[in-house]
Amino acid sequence: MSATKGENKMREILYKRRDSLQRKRKIMSISDLSDKKDYTSSVRKKFIYVVSPAEKSELDLKQPQIYITKQYNSETKEEKFSFRVKGSFYMNQDRCLFKVNFRHSLRIVIKWKVKEFSPKKSVTLT
Fold first, then answer.
1. Interval 14-46: pLDDT, tens
2. Residue 122 lies in a domain
3. Is 79 exposed, middle or buried, given 0-12, 13-18 or 19+ CB atoms closer than 10 A?
4. What are the Cα distances from residue 79, in Å, to 10, 15, 68, 121?
5. How far apart are CA 18 and CA 15, in angstroms?
6. Does residue 92 lie in a domain region?
7. Domain count, the chain
8. pLDDT in tens, 89-109
9. Which H or E run includes 29?
10. What is the mean pLDDT of the chain?
11. In a domain? residue 124
């Protein structure tokens, strides 16, 4: 966490990593909380990977699924943005073929403190 003298700035970054060899899963998450003069923001990134053995006969992959949402609430002066990707890929390790299913997500929440709601749209979430 850091603060800058003379300005209302605070920033906190949290990184988590969990691995489970039994469940063949890896999860990484990064959270960034900022308190600035005009707004507070929360940015959360999450990466999940699940590994399973694959057969050569199942090499056909579907296209990744992408979900994007964006919301504005002028009463609470909040902007929300969500981006999720879900898909899979193959990898070789020690002459074995594995299928890796993944889910990546990004979520951003901005709460404006100023009267003018979201003054710089081109800079924020457009």
1. 888 988 878 789 999 999 999 988 889 999 999
2. no
3. buried
4. 19, 24, 14, 10
5. 10
6. yes
7. 1
8. 998 888 888 999 999 999 999
9. strand 25-35
10. 83
11. no
